[in-house]
Design brief:
Layout: H1 8-36, H2 41-67, H3 72-82, H4 88-95
């Protein structure tokens, strides 16, 4: 895990996993708590965390794409779209980012 922190792609992979986990936590735990138990506290915590991780992932994807000279039509757009799809960041980490 510490090897991932040494490169920009490694840090992007960590962000991808964290963004995916935050989305799952928000959708599978926080939202049901809000509407099922009328307890919005976890949504108030996880919402901004997920939003921040989402934006960090987008900006870092663009930064790494420019630095690594990714072709937008081949790699960058796939990585960017991944964060809009549930489980997308896990998929993109396994299929693209882990091989770079």
């Amino acid at each position: 895990m510490t090897d991932l922190l040494k490169t920009k792609i490694g840090r992007l992979r960590i962000l991808a996993i964290l963004e995916g986990i935050s989305l799952l936590t928000l959708v599978c735990i926080a939202v049901p708590m809000k509407y099922g138990m009328e307890n919005p506290s976890l949504v108030k915590i996880m919402g901004p965390i997920h939003g921040s991780l989402f934006l960090l992932f987008l900006f870092n994807t663009l930064s790494v794409g420019v630095e690594q000279h990714w072709k937008f039509k081949e790699t960058t757009w796939k990585v960017l779209i991944a964060c809009f799809i549930p489980f997308g960041t896990f998929y993109i980490d396994k299929k693209i980012l882990s091989k770079l």
